[in-house]
Amino acid sequence: MQKAAPKPIIIETERLQLSELTPAIYDYLFTTCSDNREIMEYLGLKTTAELAEEKDKYSKGLSTYYQSLKNFRLLRKSDGKMIGRCGFHTWIVSHRRAEVGYALLDDKYKQQGYMKEALGPILAYGFEEMDLRRIEAYIADYNIPSAKLLQHFGFQREGVAREHYVVDGVNEDSTLLSLIRPEYDQLKSSWNLKYKVVK
């Protein structure tokens, strides 16, 4: 008998439906779905190389006793199209901290406010539902749009992680920013968030 698909948590905003993507959902996709095109569409992958990379990450283990992940697919309400991802890819449960990451799948979705609309509810979910105390973000110093987005939500610059991230085979420095729970509690009313969580 085929196992049932895990039911994802959904966060709804004005224009988006944020659909949870967890290790259990990856497990279902890679052990139950035989159609690679279906998997690629679900995960927003464009090439078979990207699919091979996701399968490799899955085979090596997406979570351990020490850390896990909780991402969300960004689905546009108007047409159901997946336009990006946003969530926590390094969630250290025992220390109540996680690293946030986000990306739009195509440049045509940029400068429309989608990521700002998604990130606020994701941060709120992290602090209020996942019981996080600290959320970290690492960005390249030349990624000005990302820096502005994080600054909008009150992230504070902490320093530089040297040769932290590999881009096109080259180790680049990353700027480390963070938001902690007391800051979130102080700032959240000014964000004017409009969303609902559907479990």
Helix content range: 25-40%
Shape call: globular
What structural category do the secondary elements indicate?
A: alpha+beta
- The N- to C-terminal Cα distance equals 26 Å
Q: Main sheet? A: 9 strands, mixed
Over all CA atoms, what is the radius of gyration?
A: 17 Å
Portion in beta strands? 25-35%
Total E-strand runs: 9
**What is the CATH architecture assignment of the domain at 10-137?**
3-Layer(aba) Sandwich
Indicate the CATH topology of the domain at 10-137.
Aminopeptidase
Stretches where pLDDT falls below 50 for ≥5 residues?
Answer: none
Strand order of the largest sheet: 7-8-6-5-4-3-2-1-9
CATH class of the domain at 10-137: Alpha Beta
Number of DSSP helical runs: 6
Query: CATH superfamily assignment of the domain at 10-137?
Result: Gcn5-related N-acetyltransferase (GNAT)
Mean pLDDT: 91
Order of helices and strands: EEHHHEEEHEHEEHE
